Amino acid sequence: MKKLVMSLFVLMLILTACSGGGSTSIAGTWSLVSYGDAASQTPAAPDVDTSIEFKDGQMSGNVGCNSFGGKYEVDGETVKFSEVMSTLMFCEGPVGDQETTSLNVLRETATFVLDGEQLTIKSADGNASIVLARK
Question: Largest Cα–Cα distance in the chain?
């Protein structure tokens, strides 16, 4: 019996070590790395401090000119966004494109992939995505 318990304990340690130990939650603060067509991403605009925080079912951030916020709910590999609102300052050029695309991805239901410290969120129609890095 002791051998069985010890073997199970060692197996559990090995499986824990192989899991990578990374977070499996999107909760936290993220910065925008790239955005746009899922197959051909555009790098985030330089010199723009972007931030998206997911915490306790609430999201907030800024990916261009305007602050935004709303609710989110994770179910498996999907995330449902609701009640998304943002300030309405005029935002043009690459920063405006970045903001518009990012906020369009953060609407309704999207799919996501969490790979270590990188989070990719793909729009409901699959045409656009944003790539985020954990801050």
Answer: 70
Cα separation, 116 vs 104, whole angstroms: 24
Locate 35 and state its tokens.
């955005």
Give the pLDDT band (50/70/90) at residue 125.
very high
Distance between CA atoms of residues 129 and 37, nearest Å: 6
**Which of 38, 86, 80 lies closest to 60, judged by CA?**
86
Q: Quick: pLDDT tens for 50-105.
A: 999 999 999 999 999 999 999 999 999 999 999 999 999 999 999 999 999 999 99
Q: Which of 116, 111, 122 is nearest to 74 (CA)?
A: 111
Domain boundaries, the chain: 22-134
pLDDT digits (tens, 9 = 90+) for 22-65: 457 999 999 999 999 988 999 999 999 999 999 999 999 999 99
The answer to whether the Cα torsion of 39, 41, 30, 100 is positive or negative is negative
Q: How far is Cα 7 from Cα 54, in angstroms, rounded to an integer?
A: 39
Residue 104, both tokens: 């369009």
Q: Which CATH architecture has domain 22-134?
A: Beta Barrel (2.40)
